[in-house]
Amino acid sequence: MVKKLRLAAAAAVLVAATSLGGPAMAQGLGPDAGLSAYDRNVFFFGGRFHSTSFYDSAFVWGLPYDDAYFLGAGYQEYFFRSDWNVTIGSEVGLGLRYDMHGPASVEAWGGLVFRHDGVVMFDTFRVSPALTVGFSAASGTVASETDRANAIGFTGHLLVYLGPEIAITPVDNPDVEGFFRVQHRSGGFGLIVDGLNGSNAVNLGVRFKF
Question: Is residue 31 domain-resident?
Fold first, then answer.
């Protein structure tokens, strides 16, 4: 419960900063500064799995990391923009999950991506939150995910996918950005299976818009 409350508090701070802090942080730039004119992008990212819960993924400095790594790439295409500075699109991706103490596996995922325009800070860069929600298919499990799946007698091949992200975009070059992203698979609170946290990997990546 404490972990969930910490995550909720962090999310509330982010939403408040996005909704209320934008005008102050944007300083002399217009509201569209740092927004790309393109609706499509490709992205590449990599990182490391950890053995604790999804809710702890933001605390990267204190995570119990597995000897397992992720390397992936994806494609996004946005098709709808709301009046609340939120764009909605589709995402597909493919990744390699490498376990130093077990077999590697391949993951493919797809879903909807929701992205807020975020805020411009110091007239230099834009900070934008996003969330991808969908399904993930993997050829096998890795590291702590293997232990969790075996404990409930589940293969873990098809699970719910979540990809929360924070992107940092230079105002003077909005078609290229860096991002922090969590690669999460789980049973989806019983949507597919009860009691399976699945896997969590924290990643850094780069995105190219076109």
Answer: no
